[in-house]
Each structure stands twice: as C-alpha cells, then as structure tokens.
Design goal:
Two copies of one chain form a homodimer.
Chain A (H helix, E strand, L loop, with lengths): L3 E2 L1 H8 L3 H9 L6 E3 L2 E5 H15 L4 H15 L3 H49 L27
Antiparallel strand pairs in A: 1-3, 2-3
Helix pairs in contact in A: 4-5
The structure holds a DNA duplex.
Chain lengths: 155, 155
DNA sequence: AAACAAGTTTACGTTAACGTAAAGCAATAG
DNA sequence: CTATTGCTTTACGTTAACGTAAACTTGTTT
C-alpha cells in the first residue's frame, strides 16, 4: 500500500517534536492508525501535517485549521448547505490571506526604506571617519532596483 | 504642535481595547507622555501602533516588534556595528516575509482548487436532483480565470 | 538475561497576550 | 453636591500550544 511513516520520521522531516505531532492528533488534525500501540501515519496524514505547518506560519490557530480539514472531509458527501458553508469559509480565508499579502508588502516597503537609510548612514560614516574595521561588506540584497517607496516611514 | 491622541481615540480607531494599548506600553512598544496622569499619544505613537498591528497580523511577537523599534531608534545615532546589526535584522525579517509570501500563495492555490471542487460538486447536485431551495447563488469570486493549479491537493 | 532505543500515556508546568475585576482620582453635567 | 464618564493602577485569571518529566510497554541488540 502507499507509503507510511513513523512519528519520528515525520518529526525529523518537518523539524517538530513528537510531542507536537501527538498534540496535533489530540486536536484532531491527524488521524494515524495503529500497529499494536504504535502510530502509523499515512501519506494523507503527512500532507495534512505539511498543511498544518503552513497554516501555523500564517497565523491560523490549530482550531481553524482543524475546521477547514473537517469541512473539507464533509465536502465529499456534502449536502448543498455544507458545500455553501465550505465555500463561504474558503472565501473568508481568501480574504484573510489577501489582507496578509497587503500587510506583507507594506512591511516590506518599510523594511526597504529602513535598509536604504541604514546604508546611507553607513556611507556617511565611511566618508567622515572610516575608523572601525569593516569585517566585510555584504552585497546581500539592495540590487539597484530603484527607490520604490518614500511615503512609508517609521519616524 | 503636531496632533495628539487619547487612549480611547486610538482604541476605537484601531479597534483595540485600552487594555491592549496599555499592555503595549508595558512592553515598551509605545511611549506616550503624560498630562497629569493621563496618557497622551503622539502621531509617532500612532504610527507605531499601526505597525504593531500589522506586525501582529503577520505573526510577529510583541518582543520581536519591540526589538525592531529599538534597533531603529539606535540607528539614528548608530555606530557602524549597530548599523550592520540593523541591516542583518532587516535581512532576517525580509527572509521571513518572503517565506510567508510563498506560504500564502501555496495556500491560496489549495483554496482555489478546493473551491473548484466545491463548485463542481454543486453542479452535479443541481443536475441530479435540485431539491433544496437555493437562497441565492453568489458570483463572489471564481471569475473564469482558468484552472491554474492541479498538483496541490488535500486528499 | 540485560540493556538500550523508540514508542506510549498521564499529567503538571510555562509563556504570550491579553481579559476581567476592583478600587480610586479628576472633570463635567445636572 | 453627587453622579456619571473617562482615565488610572494593581493584580489575579485565561487560553493556546506546546515543554518536560515520570513511569510503562515493546522490540532489538549484545
């Protein structure tokens, strides 16, 4: 049958503790079967775990994630009402994600303008008195992209 | 001088409780002055509050947000070392935001494919047996964009 | 057989981000 | 004057998401 996983395999793959994985099961995000008393995770469980992690990174609570999973399962044999409910939940989530996208681009603009200020300050320090030893200048990002923003400032 | 705000003004504008705002001050995210014993917020405080809220929506902890504010302040009279530290912190945040962007687009794809499945299931129900009354069909999103994804599935 | 690794359950501890009183000052309305 | 409204401090309570420890089973290695 399609591949299965042990709890420690999943733990190391996704860099979680086994405690967390069992906790997710307790919260009904995962439904592993048992061989004896040992948990056996299907690839469906693995996918759900991955989705759970992504959801978490996006600030969703475990309860919200669980709700989506449940709705999704009910969708299979869903009545019209269920399907419409699911659709509205999906719309909710979409809206939340759109808002997050906006937030991210705003904060990215903030960070870029902050970065520019930092680099300017550094230049000025280098002209006036290049005293402190410079470990190594990083060309990390910046990339002469142009100065997009200007309106979004911190102070 | 430039405008000031009361705690309840800010609370209603950003839909927070005054408790939260005072808590943010306790965590040194805000530094209002006092008229008598009453807090007076500057427009700088207001901006910081807005940034705090955005940061929170993105999953940053109050401690992290505070760290960025502090670094930013030190940047003004910053030594080279401080400036470089700030730059590296900025890079950290940028990386985190990039990851979040990816997460969001992944989840959006999931949601869209889920939505498509829902709508198909609805169509099938409508063909086979349109029994339940339909309150009102929503044209909300969908927009015949095409079926972009297909690889990312839940089950 | 003894020990070790990997898994299990049970249960109390911890941190972050507030909620929720309780009790008191200050100004203004009636 | 006193009543209400808005602000304040102090402090204990709460929820989510695990961490941590203890004590036990099961299988495997030496």
């Amino acid at each position: 049958m399609s591949k299965t996983y042990s709890i420690s395999e999943l733990a190391s793959e996704f860099d979680l503790t086994t405690r967390s994985i069992r906790f997710y099961e307790d919260q009904e995000l995962l439904h592993p079967t048992r061989r004896g008393q040992t948990r056996v995770y299907s690839s469906k469980d693995r996918v759900r775990l991955k989705l759970t992690i992504r959801g978490k990174r996006l600030g969703f609570s475990l309860a919200e994630i669980r709700e989506l999973f449940e709705l999704w399962d009910e969708t299979r044999s869903g009545s019209k009402k269920q399907l419409h409910l699911m659709l509205s939940k999906i719309a909710e989530r979409k809206a939340a994600l759109d808002q997050q996208m906006k937030d991210i681009t705003m904060v990215q603009l903030e960070l870029e303008s902050a970065e520019i200020r930092c680099r300017q300050a550094l230049e000025e320090l280098n002209e006036k008195g290049p005293h402190e030893t410079q470990t190594e200048d990083e060309r990390t990002s910046t990339s002469e992209k142009t100065a997009t923003s200007s309106s979004a400032t911190m102070h």
